[in-house]
Amino acid sequence: MHRTTWVEFNSKALRHNAAAVRRLAPSAAILAMVKANGYGHGADWVAKQLHNMVDGFAVARFSEALNLRGSQAQKRILLLGTELNGEQLQECARHHLDVVIHDIDTAKELANTSLAEPITVWLKMNTGMNRLGMSASEFAQAHKLLASKSTVAAIHHMSHFSDAETADHSTTALQYQRLTSLSHSLGDVPISMANSAAIIVHPQTQLDWVRPGIMLYGDDPSSSLPAGSDLQSVMTFKAKVLAVRDLEAGDAVGYNRRWQSTGKSRIATIAAGYADGYPRQAPDGTPVLINGARASLAGRVSMDLMTVDVSHLPTVKAGDVATLWGEQLPAAEVGQHCNTISYELFTRITERVERIYL
Ligand SMILES: Cc1ncc(COP(=O)(O)O)c(C=O)c1O
Q1: Confidence of residue 17 (pLDDT cuts 50, 70, 90)
Q2: So where's the catalytic machinery, residue-wise (predicted)?
Q3: In whole angstroms, what is the distance from residue 224 CA to residue 165 CA?
Q4: 80, 211, 215: residue to mutate for ligand 1 pocket, most atoms within 8 A of CB
Q5: What pLDDT was estimated at residue 1?
Q6: CB distance 33 to ligand 1 below 6 Å
Q7: Which CATH number applies to 11-217: 2.40.50.100, 3.20.20.10, 2.30.22.10, 3.50.50.60?
Q8: Tens digit of pLDDT for each residue in 280-305?
Q9: Number of H helices, E strands in the chain
């Protein structure tokens, strides 16, 4: 087996994190976010691991919903806000997909479309994110229009928080108030607002359905989990050391000679680069583990390779294993160095990287 660059996925960690969601939100139903191929972890695999722990799954593209329906015949699958004409609504109904209706025109289209099976809709209100969602008046109009339709099996109400992970709670409170007050005026309808950060920081927003994404994969975007409810990395990105060399003061490493040795040093060259999904913008000093010990990126990340200062790790040799993020090195920490977030790191692992499911 010629294995130089791979990601390991830990099913125990995934289930541990789902159990943490269950503990933090004991009375809400759980819609696990498996869009973007399960945040890069493999949607089918994630759904299989979580099948008995959650109440449904959510995806962002019709193709993702169809793929998932192939392995999840019975489970609720919600197709998040997308473009839906009459024909596409019919297709969603045929595949028993729940759909998010985020504009009044789609609500009207649905009201005038005959479906083979009734469909469950999640009406989305724009409570302040100004991305997708209806205004209060459109939302109320859509609700009244669809509530009486025999083609609509059930209605849910939803919105999405823009700032749930930040220290200022005022925007979250306002968004929560906007949806809940309007929803309550329209009847007794299941409501969904909370993403991971809201589940952790704003438990009052858990309502009927929570929608955890990143916390299932091991990151706490709010950095405020109570002690004892730790999350575990599900994805660990690993690569082999291909070479180790000794350098003298003044020697430089990699493209544009960005890192220069100030004295005697040792550099390990690792089989991962931006074509594998490691961020090219990673600066010198970005942490990497080699045989479990911390070291720092030294020099520009190239397409297939990256270089790490291992001057303090004299036993490192070709064939050793580097961890680029995951167990012992949270992706969020690497993301902070690279001016990005774990979400982006997870979803950017490229096709050529071998996937190993543990
Ligand atoms: C509509 C919606 N709900 C929930 C989530 C889950 O968010 P998180 O991964 O921060 O928990 C997302 C993710 O972007 C989303 O778009």
Answers
A1: very high
A2: 35 (proton acceptor), 255 (proton acceptor)
A3: 9
A4: 211
A5: 74
A6: yes
A7: 3.20.20.10
A8: 999 999 999 999 999 999 999 999 99
A9: 11, 18
